[in-house]
Design brief:
The protein is of the alpha+beta class and about 130 residues long. It contains 4 helices and 5 strands, in the order βααβββαβα. About 25% of the residues lie in helices and about 20% in strands.
Length: about 130
């Protein structure tokens, strides 16, 4: 089955936290639906049962630079190209709206996924209240 990736797919507040938990991340229930109001745009897709199986978004000022985050694919649908399709759709939308630079951070085990998606690894920095 081919899964259609949609920009600004209508998503209920509990759907993304549920998907986050399915991949072993903290649900961050209080982030939704606030995130949908604050990010530039998001992408997602559903399975044949209309359940959310993939999600990702780009946030930022929306002028020249955006930050891609939370590329999530339901465990039963991983390794089928859906994650890269979400990334491609987000980058197409970024280009359409005039973003010239999109950055992201990722665990080094995902380097090949993101280089295959068109990203160039580079150094950077991280500041966190928790100090990590």
């Amino acid at each position: 089955m081919k899964h259609e990736i949609c920009i600004n797919l209508p998503i209920a507040p509990l759907e993304v936290p549920t998907l986050r938990e399915l991949v072993g991340w903290e649900g961050r229930h209080s982030d939704y639906p606030i995130l949908f109001k604050r990010c530039n745009f998001w992408a997602g897709c559903r399975d044949a049962k209309n359940e959310l199986i993939a999600f990702g978004y780009i946030a930022g000022m929306g002028l020249q630079h955006g930050y891609m985050e939370d590329i999530i694919v339901h465990p039963q649908f991983q390794k089928k190209g859906i994650g890269q399709a979400v990334v491609r759709k987000l980058l197409e939308e970024a280009e359409r709206v005039g973003l010239e630079i999109v950055t992201l951070t990722y665990d080094s085990k995902h380097t090949s996924f993101y280089t295959e998606s068109g990203f160039i690894p580079c150094s950077g920095g991280l500041w966190s209240v928790a100090g990590t």
